[in-house]
Specification:
The N and C termini lie far apart (61 Å). The protein is 45% helix and 14% strand. It is elongated. Helix 10 runs antiparallel to helix 11, helix 15 packs parallel to helix 17 and helix 15 packs antiparallel against helix 20. It has 511 residues and is an alpha+beta fold. The strands form 4 sheets. It has a 5-stranded mixed beta sheet with strand order 5-2-1-7-6. The protein has a 5-stranded antiparallel beta sheet with strand order 9-8-14-13-12, with helices on both faces. A hairpin with a 6-residue loop joins strand 1 and strand 2.
């Protein structure tokens, strides 16, 4: 058993998918890789040695450590050869490091040229040779070696530079990846240096009888081009919400993510560094996501959700005998002596329930809930947002809960109400009001578009739930000390621009 495998490679627990590759469904072609699961924000994907073509492994060993299978942690012959050549040329032009030493250096993440680092490197390389088989060392090497651009491992490099899995690479593409390994950042920044290095490696493989003359000539005549595809980086906890199936052998997660929509989301938000999260729901599945704070944030961060709970309450009140035009006081009084603030104060002391939803008036909703019975309203809310009744209090009418709600919980609750309830006049009325809110706040007229916003105290968290046809978009703006003169205005303006960008790219959608 290789001790370094257990120490340095994450174990495949049900909640740990570090190094897995996420695929999205593409209806026109085969499934496509779109993301790598990594908690550090690096391009690091794991791959079993059995999934890498044997030819690639032979090429690698031939270039990086020809006698790898015949020596220990140090190759004395290579070391003296490198020393002789360097002395002859009066500069360091060759290194004598073995694959085990290179792996040790990559595991330490330390390239400093000093005696302490070299001693530590030898200690780790010796331990690797003592506890691991040669195949295990190669697997670790291929999973941890630096390939430039925050990229670690052969599989991650394959995805980043060719948008392919290692087993789909051509021979010349695999040779190019091996070529840049010696100094990835230098070669990636200079096409000429990369070409020269590729030719040298190609010639070396031919000299070592790993390539035939025709193959070597063909490689030089058709040097592969690097694509620079940048996969998304997903965090671990979001996988539970987007995975359709998981192939643990090949470390692949087949997801519910729609590749076309996700590309549009990524393209839009990559240009705007704003503290916003977004989840897109269709058929109760997450088909698109983004977060300034990492992909786990929309599922893990919990907050009060403000007035976004009002449509649930409104629908419940209509189903329990309250008419939309029924008027209630805009001043709610109770024994708690609440000081309830409003975004805008209506001119009248009494307004209809429908107007209260349109204006998001807190006092009117409290008056209506008190009139019909708070317990019933809160019990209904607990069922709709799927939290225990004990986590709700009278202030939950205004969007406050003891445990808070995640953006995902809020989105699923809305989808359950607005897309699963059929043939309901009460729901039709609710949607009509939310449609008017969408036109008022976004300036977009579409009979199938609806919007409800909500804010917490001091606008620390702001929410917007938008529906169109069979899609539901749940947005959250987390202030995070973001400097902004008009927070809600900026928040809604970003949303409006995003909606219009989707409409522009998808001509079937008309706004």
């Amino acid at each position: 058993m290789c001790s370094f495998v257990s120490k340095n490679v994450p174990k495949n627990k049900s909640t740990t998918f570090e190094g897995y590759v996420v695929y999205a469904k593409n209806t026109k072609h085969k499934d496509k890789p779109i993301a790598i699961v990594n908690s550090k924000g690096e391009y690091s994907a794991y791959c079993d040695l059995s999934n890498i073509p044997s030819k690639t492994i032979k090429y690698l060993v031939s270039i990086e450590d020809k006698r790898f299978f015949n020596h220990g942690c140090v190759d004395v012959k290579s070391l003296f050869r490198a020393l002789y050549i360097n002395c002859k040329r009066l500069k360091i032009s060759q290194g004598g490091s073995t694959i085990s030493q290179q792996l040790a250096r990559n595991l330490m993440r330390n390239n400093k040229k000093n005696l302490t680092r070299k001693v530590n490197e030898l200690i780790i390389a010796s331990e690797l040779e003592r506890t691991c088989s040669k195949e295990q060392i190669l697997e670790l090497y291929l999973n941890h070696t630096f390939w430039g651009n925050k990229c670690y491992g052969y599989r991650a490099a394959s995805l980043l530079y060719f948008s392919k899995e290692p087993w789909d690479l051509s021979k010349s593409e695999s040779i190019l990846l091996i070529s840049i390994l010696k100094g990835p950042n230098s070669y990636l920044n200079s096409t000429q240096l990369m070409m020269n290095r590729f030719k040298d490696v190609n010639q070396c493989l031919f000299d070592n009888k790993h390539l035939k003359q025709k193959e070597a000539n063909r490689n030089i005549a058709n040097v592969p081009k690097i694509i620079q595809f940048k996969p998304l980086i997903f965090q671990n906890k979001c996988i539970d919400y987007i995975a359709k199936s998981i192939n643990r052998k090949d470390k692949i997660i087949y997801s519910t993510i729609d590749i076309k929509l996700q590309k549009q989301i990524t393209s839009f938000f990559s240009l705007r560094q704003i503290p916003m999260s977004l989840i897109v729901i269709k058929d109760m599945k997450v088909i698109g996501l983004h977060s300034y704070f990492g992909t786990d944030y929309p599922f893990e961060y919990k907050s009060n959700v403000g007035s976004t709970l009002k449509p649930f309450i409104y629908y419940y009140l209509l189903n329990n005998g309250i008419e939309p035009h029924h008027k209630f006081s805009t001043k709610f009084t109770d024994i708690l002596n609440w000081n309830i603030r409003e975004i805008q104060y209506p001119n009248s002391k009494m307004i209809s329930l429908e107007e209260a939803l349109y204006l998001s008036n807190n006092n009117t909703f409290l008056s209506a809930c008190n009139y019909i019975g708070m317990d019933g309203v809160l019990q209904y809310l607990s069922e709709m947002i799927s939290i225990d009744r004990c986590n709700l209090t009278n202030s939950s009418i205004l969007g406050s809960t003891i445990c808070g709600l995640s953006l995902y919980q809020l989105a699923i609750a809305y989808y359950n109400l607005l897309y699963k309830v059929k043939n309901s006049p009460e729901l039709d009325n609710t949607l009509e009001v939310l449609n008017r809110i969408a036109f008022k706040k976004l300036g977009i007229f579409d009979s199938s578009l609806f919007l409800k916003t909500g804010t917490t105290n001091n606008n620390r968290d702001m929410f917007a739930i938008i529906g169109h046809e069979d899609l539901l978009f749940a947005y959250m703006w987390h202030d995070y000390d973001y400097i902004c003169n008009s927070k809600e205005g900026t928040f809604l303006n970003v949303i409006r621009r995003f909606i219009l960008s989707l409409a522009k790219k998808n001509h079937k959608t008309k706004y």
